[in-house]
Amino acid sequence: LNLSNAANYDEGKAKSSSYIAEGLVTVGLFKEGLKQLDRIENTDFYKNEIFMQSEVHRLRGRAYGGLLLNEQAIREFRVQQGLIRKLTGEKRVKSLQFNYENLAVVFQRLGQLDSMQKYTELQLENLKVFEEKDAAMRYQIAYENLGTLYVQKGELAKAQQYLDKSLKLIEKYKIPIVLN
To answer: Among the four 30, 91, 135, 175, which has the fewest Cβ within 10 Å?
Structure first.
């Protein structure tokens, strides 16, 4: 970021701030992450790049979710969905993947299990374009989320099926448990 600032390199400023914001939000420093996102929005790169706009809304939604501002999080993810419609190819597929996963998490936190189920199933449908080995962690997360959903609904046999699928992927692809 410092090099981009020194060189007045607009794209570098936006991308560096995005990586910093992602790290801050991931470790739970939500307000600091939001400040980074505000900086990105001041760049021309942000104003001209749909994918960067989508990422800012995704990260802002995650930060708001972390702050338990669930309605604001949902609003950000809805704005992101509008931007995703303008994307194509791999960027579109991966953006949808994260969008569905993030919405499922917020709806789970709100106890809206039907919406959680809807977005987790959309996530699984979206994953079909990938080979299992290429998206093992995404599949694992979706299966774990469905297992959790069915535990909450009291459908323990179904929960067991999805949790078993999740554990098999962890073992098969050596997915680090600390990331789950």
So the answer is: 91
CA distance 120 to 178: 21
Tokens of 168: 């098999």
Residue labelled with tokens 């560096």: 16
Pick the closest to residue 166 from 134, 143, 145, 149 (CA basis).
143
Task: State which H helix or E strand residue 100 sits in.
Answer: helix 89-109
- pTM for the model stands at 0.92
Phi, psi of 74 (to 5 degrees): -60, -45
Angle at Cα 70 formed by Cα 107 and Cα 58, nearest 5°? 85
pLDDT single digits (tens) 114-165: 999 999 999 999 999 999 999 999 999 999 999 999 999 999 999 999 999 9
Instruction: Report phi then psi at 39, rounded to 5.
Output: -65, -40
1-36 residue pLDDT tens? 888 888 889 999 999 999 999 999 999 999 999 999
Rounded distance between C-alpha atoms, residue 140 and residue 76, angstroms: 25
Distance CA 151, CA 165 (A): 15
**Around Cβ 70, how many Cβ atoms within 10 Å?**
17
